[in-house]
Design a protein that fits this description.
The protein is mostly beta strands. The protein contains no helices and 69 strands. The strands form 18 sheets. It has a five-stranded mixed beta sheet, with no helix packed on it. Strands 13-19-18-15-16 form a five-stranded mixed beta sheet, with no helix packed on it. A five-stranded mixed beta sheet has the order 21-27-26-23-24, with no helix packed on it.
Length: 714
């Protein structure tokens, strides 16, 4: 039996975690036992760890792995030994390090190295074959940044100019730092050897030079953008020509050739006039060269003067000391002199009239002394004048001519009116002076003196003509003042013995007939029907006449009272009546009959429709059948007739509330008053002047009865 572990058997296998002493108890066949011990020493297992310079690397890149904790190490995969190893995984790989210590005990550790894929780099070029001295562009893609060799260049795109065929390598680095490479070969073709030949590089300006290129297949020349192996040029100044030659590979090269130009003179001629008139001279001045030769004439001066009889072209040759020259042709045109004449529309005109001047034989015309141009022209000479016309041909050659006119003075016409202010209906005399004959407008009358009766204000214009036929005008204005509109206001009919007031209006002063009064208002007492006339004159002296007829009314006859008991009746009929008791009007007793109620003297007066009365009848004293009354009412108008102003006198025997009304002949109430607590005597002034003439009915009304009287206003 083994302890610890309670194991049995002659042989046991144990795995103590620490140094342990094992005891075994053996039992013989006889049952006897005995023990012995054995100590098993347990050495510690090494604890292996791994460190790395980078746990993540780009595919194929190196990283360092270092193990510690043991004495010797074996690495898998790779079966490498040593504490530190360098690995270059192309894919993500787990590495195991097994370490053994000095007791021979072993331990292990693992580490995983993660790989990142490298970028795929591409390189493209715009042209992989170029000519020597040319350039091309190479562009990389697939990474984030790039470096190029040869040249130690950087950037996605580089421009290169290799002198010979060259392979360019680009290293592309991705954003994660991984790199890759690719190459691009640029082939360089040789450029042609271009040369230029010219017979002479010296020339005068405006001459020609020939240039021939060789060494290439095609050629382009500058300046001028010419093509071809041989060109002909005419430079104005010294010029360097460049030819670009292209061979079969498309490669180019250039060559230059200077053409030295000696300047040719630029001959300039100024002429006093290139177009002259016959007989004039022309001076020609040349400049721009050193020596000159003129033809015709074979003259050598810089300034020459000619008097050509006909149009001539002059030739001048100017030469420099270098022998370069210039030739200029100078045409001079000789124009003929125009034959100028002048005409006038009239040899004699009146002052203020126009004449027409016409020139002939030229293209344009200028007239003096009036400083006008053109043909024909119109002038208004103020005195006798000689006109000179200068005619200019289209070529500018001139000639003159003259023409004269005599100017007659115009008559001094004067128009005078006998009066410049007249009344409508009056006539006016018009007198003209200063001429031989006269015509008046707008009346179309002739003669030095005419007469007219205008109805409105008129401006008369007289046209006077003298013996030379010259005319002048003058005018005078005659203002026509309308006659005043005169009217007369007043009564047309009055009662006998009454007066009438007549008022004229519409003027400032008046004269009346009959009577001879000169006031606007007159008062008269005609005894028969009369027609009044008034002549009204305004402030300007214009007058007008108005008439007004006043008729004397025929009143009713004086009545006789017919007595029938206490019933009294007028034997004369009329429009209105008024009964009187003891000379006092009886209120409300205005009918043809009256009932006598008190003793006394009764009379009656009859009125026609105009209010004219008959006069009171003979008296009737104390009619029979009358019961005596101690009180009575009455109402009277003082005076009656009147001019609209009167006193209304009222006596009442009963104190009461009364209504006083006045009506015109149309029944319209023109006055109304409430008289409260009226009793006894009451006098009241009435004014009806605003209501016109006529007969007015005056009514006094209380709760029991009504009294009525008439008032006549004239």
């Amino acid at each position: 039996m083994w302890m610890p572990g309670s194991l049995s058997g002659a042989t046991i296998t144990i795995s103590p975690a620490a140094t342990t002493t094992y005891t075994v108890t053996g039992t013989g066949a006889n049952g006897c036992t005995n023990t012995t011990t054995r100590t098993i020493t347990v050495n510690p297992t090494p604890i292996v760890t791994i460190t790395t310079t980078s746990a993540t690397v780009c595919s194929g890149n190196n990283t360092s792995l270092t193990a510690s904790g043991a004495t010797s190490y074996v690495w898998m995969p790779g079966n490498l030994s040593g504490a530190t190893i360098i690995v270059s995984p192309t894919t993500t790989t787990t590495y195991t390090a097994t370490g053994t210590n000095g007791n021979g005990c072993v331990g292990s550790a693992i580490i995983t190295i993660t790989t990142i894929a490298n970028p795929t780099i591409l390189a493209t070029t715009t042209m992989n074959t170029i000519c020597a001295g040319g350039t091309t562009t190479i562009t990389a893609s697939g990474a984030n940044s790039y470096s190029w060799m040869p040249g130690n260049l950087s950037g996605t795109t580089v421009t290169v100019s290799p002198l010979s065929t060259t392979t360019y390598t680009v290293i592309g680095t991705a954003t994660n730092g991984c790199t890759n490479t690719t190459t691009q070969t640029i082939t360089v073709s040789a450029a042609p050897n271009v040369t230029i030949f010219t017979p002479s590089f010296l020339m005068c300006s405006a001459a020609n030079a020939t240039l021939t290129a060789s060494g290439a297949t095609s050629y382009t020349w500058q300046p001028g953008n010419l093509s071809g192996a041989t060109i002909t040029v005419s430079p104005l100044s010294t010029t360097t020509y460049t030819v670009v030659g292209t061979n079969g590979n498309g490669c180019t090269n250039s060559a230059t050739q200077m053409i030295v130009v000696s300047p040719s003179p630029t001959v300039v001629v100024t002429a006093t006039n290139s177009s002259i008139c016959y007989g004039d001279s022309v001076t020609l001045v040349v400049s721009g060269a050193s020596v000159y030769n003129w033809m015709p004439g074979n003259l050598s001066n810089a300034t020459v003067t000619y008097v050509p009889a006909t149009s001539t072209t002059y030739t001048v040759i100017g030469t420099y000391p270098s022998g370069c020259s210039d030739t200029l042709l100078v045409p001079i045109t000789v124009n003929i002199i125009p034959t100028v004449t002048a005409s006038i529309s009239a040899d004699s005109v009146c002052f203020g009239n126009s004449i027409t001047l016409t020139g002939f034989g030229a293209a344009t015309y200028s007239w003096q002394p009036i400083n006008m141009s053109g043909s024909p022209i119109t002038d208004f000479p103020i005195s006798s004048t000689t006109y000179t016309v200068t005619g200019l041909s289209a070529a500018g050659c001139s000639n003159t001519s003259t023409v004269s006119v005599f100017v007659n003075s115009i008559p001094l016409v004067n128009a005078v009116a006998s009066s410049n202010l007249i009344c409508l209906g009056a006539s006016v005399n018009l007198n003209g002076t200063g001429a031989a004959s006269y015509l008046w407008q707008p009346i179309n009358l002739s003669g030095p003196t005419v007469s007219d009766a205008p109805t409105t204000t008129v401006t008369y214009t007289v046209t006077g003509t003298d013996l030379n036929g010259c005319i002048n005008i003058d005018s005078t204005t005659v203002t026509v003042v309308p006659q005043p509109t005169v009217s007369i206001a007043g009564l047309n009919i009055i009662c006998p013995g009454n007066s009438v007031s007549l008022t004229a209006s519409g003027a400032t002063s008046y004269a009346w007939l009959p009577g001879g009064q000169t006031t606007a208002t007159i008062i008269d007492s005609p005894i028969t029907s009369t027609t009044y006339s008034v002549t009204g004159t305004d402030s300007l002296g214009c007058f007008s006449l108005a008439t007004h007829t006043v008729v004397i009314d025929i009143p009713p006859a004086t009545p006789i009272v017919i007595v029938n008991g206490n019933i009294l009746t007028s034997n004369v009929t009329g429009a209105n009546y008024q009964w009187f008791l003891n000379g006092v009007p009886i209120p409300l007793s205005t009918g043809q009959s009256c009932t006598a109620t008190v003793l006394g003297t009764y009379t009656v007066e009859v009125y026609d429709s105009l209010g004219c009365g008959s006069g009171q009848s003979t008296a009737v004293v104390d009619p029979t059948g009358i019961a005596q009354l101690n009180d009575f009412d009455f109402m009277r108008v003082i005076p009656n007739p009147n001019d609209g102003h009167f006193m209304l006198s009222i006596h009442t025997t009963k104190t009461d509330n009364y209504i006083l009304e006045i009506q015109n002949m149309l029944g319209q109430i023109v006055y109304r008053e409430i008289l409260n607590n009226l009793g006894g005597n009451y006098n009241h002034e009435i004014n009806l002047t605003n209501y016109g003439v006529g007969v007015y009915t005056i009514r006094l009304i209380n709760s029991e009865k009504e009294q009525i009287i008439k008032s006549v206003t004239y």
